């Protein structure tokens, strides 16, 4: 059964919090990782790796650079 | 035919390190490229690095570090019968570095060869040295990691200029009744050869930082754990973890996953930058100097870099 958007959002919030210390509640779909959450490219790699462990979907580096917002990542995981 | 009589084990007798005099700060770099101190410190963890002067070669750096290790070991140059230099930044590949370093140190006619496993080079060379002592093909080995990365870096490329630096580190290896250099765990991923590379003799060093970061933070902690397991050492027993000083965030990520809860983590990168094959012995020499590690303590070394290559082993601090 596919994971819901809400489940992915909750999982991403937890991952972002563990890696960057940003409160999970700040991680909402419209937020940009770089511009709104101030997350750098190396932390994005750590988030992608943790998301792969959590959701079983690999996000390669060449795809990662196109995923600007939290919603973009949710869509990628659901696709 | 018969075999040489080797030693039951091998040990490190002493370390030596050398950094060139010229300091390049993050502010110095910011005058030339679009970067700043805060950006470099948060992404890479470096505050300053050293670069060799125009007349100072990677051989000169190696002679300084090797001479210090030899002096600290209490041995004479006549005791050394093998010299191994780990380097990937020679200005010219012929002749090799090790014969020149040996000659400059007054070591008469030793076996002399270079190892190129990039930033993993010191751990490969140390393993070869320990094996040579155990097999009886050498009695005392001088192992040196030396790099002059400044001559391969494009100082206008902010992806590499902020990271790499020059330096050298060395160790003297000799026989021991008990094992004091553990089994090496080594390997490579040639499928990723292009992510850290120099395309040709006219090119500078190129690195795909994100790909290297992902590889290092996801594939190396099992290698570190296996090196402990092969030596029969629990990570909690380590008094030091000395990985290649590539990037502070890689170092901390691997350390976290290793579970070396009682170990001092080498953070020499802060004031030395990434000196490739020199970084592990350089860090160790300074940790010994500052009393951060004690004789008899166990340290896990873990080299990794271009190739991609990696190698790690547990050692006892001399």
TrEMBL record, chain A:
Carrier of the growing fatty acid chain in fatty acid biosynthesis. Keywords: Cytoplasm, Fatty acid biosynthesis, Fatty acid metabolism, Lipid biosynthesis, Lipid metabolism, Phosphopantetheine, Phosphoprotein. Pathway: Lipid metabolism; fatty acid biosynthesis. InterPro entries: ACP (IPR003231), ACP-like_sf (IPR036736), PP-bd_ACP (IPR009081). The modification O-(pantetheine 4'-phosphoryl)serine is found at residue 41. Residues 6-79 form the Carrier domain. The gene is acpP. The lineage of its organism: Bacteria, Bacillati, Actinomycetota, Actinomycetes, Streptosporangiales. Transmembrane segments: none annotated. Belongs to the acyl carrier protein (ACP) family. It comes from the Bacteria. This is Acyl carrier protein. It is found in: Cytoplasm. The keyword Plastid does not apply. It holds the Pfam family PP-binding. PANTHER family: ACYL CARRIER PROTEIN, CARRIER DOMAIN-CONTAINING PROTEIN. 4'-phosphopantetheine is transferred from CoA to a specific serine of apo-ACP by AcpS. This modification is essential for activity because fatty acids are bound in thioester linkage to the sulfhydryl of the prosthetic group.
């Amino acid at each position: 059964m596919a994971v819901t958007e809400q489940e992915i959002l909750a999982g991403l919030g937890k991952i972002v919090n563990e890696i960057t210390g940003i409160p999970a509640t700040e991680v909402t779909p419209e937020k940009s990782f770089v511009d709104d959450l101030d997350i750098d490219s190396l932390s994005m790699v750590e988030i992608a790796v943790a998301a792969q462990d959590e959701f079983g979907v690999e996000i390669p580096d060449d795809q990662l650079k196109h995923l600007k917002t939290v919603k973009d990542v949710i869509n990628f995981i659901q696709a | 035919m018969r075999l040489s009589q080797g030693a039951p084990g091998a040990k490190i007798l002493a370390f030596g390190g050398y950094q060139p005099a010229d300091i390049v700060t993050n502010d110095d770099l910011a005058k030339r490229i679009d970067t700043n101190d805060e950006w470099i410190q948060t992404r890479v963890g470096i505050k300053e690095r050293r670069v060799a002067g125009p007349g100072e070669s990677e051989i000169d750096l190696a002679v300084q570090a090797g001479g210090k290790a030899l002096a600290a070991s209490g041995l004479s140059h006549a005791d050394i019968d093998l010299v191994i230099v780990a380097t990937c930044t020679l200005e010219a590949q012929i002749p090799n570095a090790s014969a020149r370093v040996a000659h400059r140190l007054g070591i008469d006619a030793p076996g002399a060869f270079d190892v190129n496993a990039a930033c993993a080079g010191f751990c490969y060379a140390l393993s070869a040295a320990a094996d040579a002592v155990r097999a009886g093909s050498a009695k005392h080995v001088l192992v040196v990691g030396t790099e002059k990365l400044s001559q391969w870096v494009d100082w206008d490329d902010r992806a590499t200029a902020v990271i790499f630096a020059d330096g050298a580190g060395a160790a003297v290896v000799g026989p021991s009744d008990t094992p004091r250099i553990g089994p090496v765990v080594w390997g490579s991923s040639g499928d990723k050869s292009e992510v850290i590379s120099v395309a040709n003799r006219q090119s500078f060093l190129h690195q795909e930082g994100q790909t290297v970061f992902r590889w290092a933070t996801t594939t190396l902690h099992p290698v570190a754990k296996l090196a402990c397991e092969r030596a029969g050492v629990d990570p909690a027993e380590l008094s030091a973890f000395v990985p290649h000083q590539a990037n502070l965030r890689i170092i901390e990520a691997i350390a976290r996953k290793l579970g070396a809860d009682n170990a001092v983590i080498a953070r020499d990168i802060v004031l030395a930058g990434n000196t490739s094959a020199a970084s592990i012995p350089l860090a160790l020499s300074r940790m010994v100097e500052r009393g951060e590690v004690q004789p008899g303590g166990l340290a896990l070394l873990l080299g990794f870099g271009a190739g991609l290559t990696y190698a790690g082993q547990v050692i006892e601090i001399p």
